[in-house]
Amino acid sequence: MGKIMIQNFFAELKRLSIVIGFIFFSGLPAISETAGETDQINNEVSLKIARLMTATHERGLFNGNILVIRGDHVLFEQSFGYFDGSKSRKLDQAAVFNAGSIAKEFSAVAIMMLIEQGKISLDTPVSLYFSDLPGWAEKVQVKHLLNYTSGLPPVRWREIKNHNDAFADLMKVEELPFDPGMGYLYSNNNVFLQRMIIEKVTGKPFGAFAKEYILPKAGMRTALVDPVLGEGDVPKAFNNDFQNDPEFDLPIKGWVMVTAKDMANWFKALHGHKLVSETSVKTLFASYSPRQLGALGLSKYNENGALQYHQHHGSSVNFEALATYRAFEDTAIILLTNNKNRKLFEITNSVEAILEGKESYRIPKKPISVAIGKECKVDVEACLATYEKLKKREPNLYDFDNENALNTLGYQLLRSENVEAAIAVFSRNVLEFPNSANPYDSLGEAYAKARNAELALKNYAKSLELDPENKNAAEMIRKIKTRLKEQK
């Protein structure tokens, strides 16, 4: 059907702007062998996605670009909202977004390209390239950098200003929290060292390598490396008060920013094996456990070893992105926003329901974490009282039925060192979802940070009981018990 312009649906979409909660539509017609009926099905899909996205935008939950493409056929492509917080310029499909962690795929693929060329080995220790790093570099291998099992600590963004600072910071790391390969720690230092190794081996900074050997091969003609936000077609991100994110310059360079079409082309190139082999792609999907991500994010393979699904999420301040590739039907769903509301997974789930011809799909609800977040930072008891009032007054408007809603708020508090408030929020989430493992795992983490070993163990144990595959809970129980024994 090609590009869907919002004007074509204005009358119908205006009527739908007041809809909240669930919207029910008839299922899609049975798939026909005739081209005419296939076009009719695609038109139905396009119209339903347009209704979903317009209602979501009108709720203030999506400002950005969406592309849904099957093969070479665009099912839906539209821009919603503004280029920055000034609201003086509308977004269009030429906008180049910061996709956060999704950009880590490009450096990981670069590593595999060099491995396939025989210039790097998965088992090579980091010390081979950087002999002046501390002793842990002899144990950390390239493969550990790819699946975040190196044990390298998080980047101290506030302290470092450039690559030299980042490397100097690693020189100060005397000991890792676990032996490489024996744990999982999602740290950008893994990505930093990947890019440093690429430069060491090729003589080119990763950004230059990407521009020469990755982006052209992938057909990513509008992608940019380390562009200035707000210039050209690169939007600025802003919060729900339309305040632009503060100016900042990432000290670790080599971040590829993309249009929605760039991201769709990336999927085609990656899974068409134009860059690396199928075996290399599987290596990059490998993760420490089903709960953790590999270098390419999430994957699902069928019993015959064929890729069925690839999904990766990323964010940076108020930029957020979710890219999904349904390999079994060669369909990509790309969502890019410069106004993060943490609703991209819900939007994608609804788009997938439409693609699958399901009778109903859901309009995303407003995040309760945004509604009460500021109050929780000041007075957590008053904040939770507001939570109860909103739940009684407007139960269908906010995401009370999503266990990640309060969990998101709890981690915001935990990251800001407001541990007691985080414990209160996580405890409320446990009451809301007593049969779910994740809220207990989060509460256990908060108690561990508060150095309350007894309650940390209790909650990690409950999480493990509900989800025996939760390696994080099992590992934390082991660590806490070991520490208690050492203290005796």
SSE blueprint:
Blueprint: H1 10-16, E1 22-24, H2 35-58, E2 64-70, E3 73-80, H3 104-116, H4 142-146, H5 163-171, H6 188-202, H7 206-214, E4 224-225, E5 256-257, H8 260-271, H9 278-285, E6 298-301, E7 307-316, E8 319-326, E9 331-337, H10 344-355, E10 360-362, H11 368-378, H12 380-393, H13 403-415, H14 419-432, H15 437-449, H16 453-466, H17 471-487
Antiparallel strand pairs: 1-10, 2-3, 2-9, 4-5, 6-7, 7-8, 8-9
Helix pairs in contact: 2-10, 3-6, 11-12, 11-13, 13-14, 13-15, 14-15, 15-16, 16-17
Helix proportion: 40-55%
How do the strands line up in the largest sheet? Answer: 3-2-9-8-7-6
Low-confidence stretches: 1-33
Order of helices and strands: HEHEEHHHHHEEHHEEEEHEHHHHHHH
What is the count of helical runs?
17
Shape: globular
- β-strand percent reads 5-15%
Distance linking N and C termini: 70 Å
> Major beta sheet, specifics?
6 strands, antiparallel
SS-based structural class? Answer: alpha+beta
Q: Got a strand count?
A: 10
Task: Quote the average pLDDT.
Answer: 90
Return Rg in Å: 23 Å
